[in-house]
Design a protein that fits this description.
- By secondary structure, this protein is an alpha+beta fold.
- It is built from seven helices and four strands.
- The strands form two sheets. Strands 1-2 form a two-stranded parallel sheet.
- Strand 3 and strand 4 form a beta hairpin.
- It is elongated, with a radius of gyration of 18 Å.
């Protein structure tokens, strides 16, 4: 496959986002038919419009993350690990993604979210583990652990702190 050396995703081949959906769905255990049946749902959630047909190497990191997240939440795995997924995208996409996470959480699935978005952690999680330099510092209720983390960082409560540290 061809790549463009100056692209931020230069290791990505020229295949379009549509192929990323196929590969992600197959990796998530979906059949080709299931992927085809859910393609529009995935594409609509990602809100990439016609860019779904563009080569992946032309995607911004936000577009790439949107599409990956859309595939992951549509696959509806028993265990979903979300690593800073809500840190990309506009406010509308963040809110939509947060609502999707809450929906999946309600389906009795195991969700593991890695984030510095303290407001999101307080809102979404029912248990939090604070890990610092590879060691578990504290585990428990979100408010208790986030408060201790904020104290550790010597920061106050503000919109900026609660969003991303």
């Amino acid at each position: 496959p061809q790549t463009h050396p100056s692209s931020p995703h230069s290791a990505l081949p020229v295949f379009p986002g549509r192929e990323k959906v196929l590969l992600g769905g197959l990796a998530g255990g979906m059949s080709r038919k299931e992927i085809a049946d859910h393609f529009e749902e995935i594409a609509d959630f990602a809100e990439l419009g016609d860019a779904i047909e563009a080569p992946m190497r032309t995607y911004s990191s936000g577009m790439f993350a949107r599409l990956g997240f859309s595939v992951a939440v549509t696959v509806k795995p028993d265990i979903l690990i979300i690593d800073e997924a809500l840190s990309t995208g506009d406010a509308h996409f963040k809110e939509k993604s947060l609502n999707k996470i809450k929906e999946l959480r309600g389906d009795a699935r195991a969700l593991i979210m890695v984030s510095h978005g303290l407001g999101t952690i307080r809102e979404v999680c029912n248990e939090v583990a604070w890990i610092h330099k590879g060691k578990l510092i504290q585990r428990g209720q979100p408010n208790m652990v986030v408060d201790a983390y904020e104290k550790f960082l010597h920061v106050g409560k503000s919109a900026a702190v609660n969003e991303d540290i």
